[in-house]
Amino acid sequence: MIGSRNRAQPRASRPWSFSGMDYSESKKKRNFIGKIVLAAVLTVLCIYMLKNSSGFSTPSLFSRHEPGVTHVLVTGGAGFIGSHAALRLLKDSYRVTIVDNLSRGNLGAIKVLQEQFPEPGRLQFIYADLGDAKAVNKIFAENAFDAVMHFAAVAYVGESTLEPLRYYHNITSNTLVVLEAMAAHGVNTLIYSSTCATYGEPAKMPITEETPQAPINPYGKAKKMAEDIILDFSKNSDMAVMILRYFNVIGSDPDGRLGEAPRPELREHGRISGACFDAALGIIPGLKVKGTDYNTADGTCIRDYIDVTDLVDAHVKALAKAKPGKVGIYNVGTGKGRSVKEFVDACKKATGVDIKVDFLSRRPGDYAEVYSDPSKINRELNWTAQYTDLQESLQIAWKWQKLHQNGYRSSLTSSF
Ligand SMILES: *[C@@H]1O[C@H](CO)[C@@H](O)[C@H](O)[C@H]1NC(C)=O
Ligand SMILES: *[C@@H]1O[C@H](CO)[C@@H](O)[C@H](O)[C@H]1NC(C)=O
Ligand SMILES: *[C@@H]1O[C@H](CO)[C@@H](O)[C@H](O)[C@H]1NC(C)=O
């Protein structure tokens, strides 16, 4: 574990991610004291959570099925989408167990959820690695899950081309581990996080669920393989499966409790919304729009941006409609494409910062236009995107970003 963190270190020292000149001595000192306080807080928190996790408390509410209570295992629940999903499930009175090894997720998100739902039997956090089949089996043996929402994954297209094994390992092979544990312990409902990247570069827009899947990068391929494993398995079992193929996820909790906080060293792989906020905060000098000569109305790429609040709503609806022996595959998007130029304008308005934009030539491997046809999920799950105002979604996310410039860390230290 420690090894993997160390390996990630060198990338953190990219020049633009830390602009040392801005920091005065006193700020450095404050930062240092802040770090010590943070370390102390984290230690206490870890002990607290360990005490509350299944291993320590005798017979836990999480270990037996309770009529009328649906216990959902949320893998990757400390991550961006997983934490938002956990929050929604808890609000809707589900019992939630989060499994996350915090390699990409945030302990701060778990802390927020624990504070919101401290009652016994609501939320449990288990620190574990889904690559560790023995650990996963133990978790399934000790807990009575009714359903699994499998979010945990690595999810950067660029990174996937640089480190394909990391993607096949942590997406495809970890999904297999989860599926085997589900089969071995009779957990029958799976809601799987997939992606529009499994379609590759379709000739025809919009993308329906019938659009042939021909992924063009290891991220999309790893997700497609995981889908195939799930589908093959479901043919000979009575598993209830829902596969949700996400388009470009943006936004954050409208009440400002949760946000998106990628590891600093991963920012360079990040998504356009992250880059927009980093530019608005002055962490990076500006935005680089790559490609202005695509065959689209304004020449920039077109994507379908789905707000995370709508996305987790799709998960809850999928869970409610999941049926044994049935598979549902759904695109989750708004059905409306937005150009990068539109996105940048919305970002400037949402942040109130006149972000500097450089228009550059195309990035290899980018496709001009991707947007969904969400009519199947509208029809079958009665789901429709509600947060379709790009500027509003970005405004909500920006509010959190501004208050949490060090991700969840700043909220942890400021509470002391
Ligand atoms: C977390 O899990 C991944 C995926 O299996 C694993 O490879 C990685 O080393 C783990 N990292 C930590 C910090 O435990
Ligand atoms: C993913 O898998 C690789 C093995 O290929 C491992 O080294 C890495 O730490 C894993 N975890 C993450 C979060 O990438
Ligand atoms: C569909 O959802 C809407 C709200 O989004 C709700 O008012 C309506 O009753 C739902 N219809 C069905 C058939 O559940």
Automatic annotation (TrEMBL):
Pfam families: GDP_Man_Dehyd
Signal peptide range: none
Cofactor: NAD(+)
TM region(s), chain numbering: 32-50
Tagged with keyword Cytoplasm: no
Keywords from the UniProt entry: Carbohydrate metabolism, Isomerase, Membrane, NAD, Transmembrane, Transmembrane helix
Domain NAD(P)-binding: 73-388
MF-aspect GO terms: UDP-glucose 4-epimerase activity
CDD domains listed in its UniProt record: UDP_G4E_1_SDR_e
Organism superkingdom: Eukaryota
GO biological process, one term: galactose metabolic process
NCBIfam families: galE
Entries under PANTHER family matching the protein: UDP-ARABINOSE 4-EPIMERASE 1, UDP-GLUCOSE 4-EPIMERASE
Protein name: NAD-dependent epimerase/dehydratase
Native organism: Macleaya cordata (Five-seeded plume-poppy)
